[in-house]
Amino acid sequence: MAGTQRYLRYIVFAFVCLVLIFFISSSSSVGQGSLKSPSEILKEQSASWRGSHQEEAHDSEKPAQDASAAKGSATTGTTLNTHALPPATAPGERMNATFVTLARNGDVWEIARSIRQVEDRFNRKFNYDWVFLNDAEFDDTFKKVTTSLVSGKTKYGKISTDHWSFPSWIDQEKAAKVRQEMKEKKIIYGDSISYRHMCRYESGFFFRHPLMLDYEWYWRVEPSIELFCDIEYDTFKFMAENKKKYSFVLSLYEYVETIPTLWDATKSFIEKFPQHIAQGNSMAFLSDDDGKTYNHCHFWSNFEIGNLNWLRSDAYLDFFNHLDQAGGFFYERWGDAPVHSIAAGLMLKKDEIHFFNDIAYYHVPFTHCPTGEKTRLDNKCHCNPKDNFDWNGYSCTARYFEINNMQKPEGYEKEHS
Ligand SMILES: Nc1nc2c(ncn2[C@@H]2O[C@H](COP(=O)(O)OP(=O)(O)OP(=O)(O)O)[C@@H](O)[C@H]2O)c(=O)[nH]1
Ligand SMILES: [Mg+2]
């Protein structure tokens, strides 16, 4: 009896199992019918995309009325803007000005980043031209990419060999020895020939390139810079209206090893050309002992907005030629930053040099973030005020304010680091 009961239990259990198997298999077959494999989904999506794309193409052949009617229906149920929006392009006349960049073909993506920032924050409203200069021919990629990003006209110039080579009077052996010594001392770019040509070119030639002769004002832009605030006004017009000739956003002390005799050459220039030294100049920015020695303060020239006619003046050219004859671009490693700064400091009146507190800027490794919360908020700045270099002990900007008897921007004490 017990054996029969056990058999019965087995039969009932087997029946239940069969029923369960039936339900499971029938429900999964329903699932198979509605679930799609990834490749099927992709196929369907691409078919539907093709369909709508073809419709769009078809639509574009329809009369304009239909297109606007379709547009109207797309906005139905949403709220249209009824407030006045700022004009896409700033109204008014433009100055005779251009951006200028010295670059190699290999810098294309780094300069693309810079251009995008300059355009977004400033130039899309003003559409100024952009001149690109190179010691080699620019390739098609460089031209294509940069032209697509610049809202003004783009121009591409090759630098002539005599502006990018050793002058005849340079002793090649002496120059090579210096490069070797600087390499051993691990001085940045100390052994580089091209860096020296670059510094000499930026010091004495870029403003004389045939493409630059069409312009009076320039704004220098280097690869991989950042702008952190909107610039709503025409900076070139500001310079002109306020009789400014040179401007900066960051200042600091130069690496002494690169310019041991630059001040000696400057002093002999002052002796030889006293007529070029301006009354009311910024000597106190450059020297703590009325010109006996250089304190190494300079404006950081990777950002510059300036007047090209000043750089093309006899005064500036006499200064450049005097330095070039001394040979320090090759026997040392004179940078264009101290060269421009000493020239501006001695040959311009104090108030012809402008500090743009409101142009927030980064070039590795320093940031100028405007002092004063109001300025930062008004101009939609996205820099961290803590990164501002201006009131750091290695900056010369406080000195600039002091020698000009200018009040430091509001909030300076709070942001003093
Ligand atoms: N055509 C060309 N441009 C150069 C050459 N060397 C530097 N430049 C450009 O000259 C400018 C200054 O060079 P950088 O390499 O940025 O020099 P730097 O700012 O002192 O140093 P970084 O910290 O490297 O930026 C940049 O716009 C460079 O693209 C070169 O050999 N040929
Ligand atoms: Mg640079």
From TrEMBL:
Q: Which UniProt keywords apply?
A: Glycosyltransferase, Signal, Transferase
Compositionally biased spans, kind Basic and acidic residues:
52-64
Q: Where are the transmembrane segments?
A: none
- Spell out the coiled coil positions from the record: none
Region described as Disordered: spans on this chain: 45-92
Query: Would you say which domain of life the source belongs to?
Result: Eukaryota
Q: Which family does it belong to?
A: Belongs to the glycosyltransferase 15 family.
PANTHER family named in the record: ALPHA-1,2 MANNOSYLTRANSFERASE KTR1
Write the protein's name. Answer: Alpha 1,2-mannosyltransferase 2.4.1
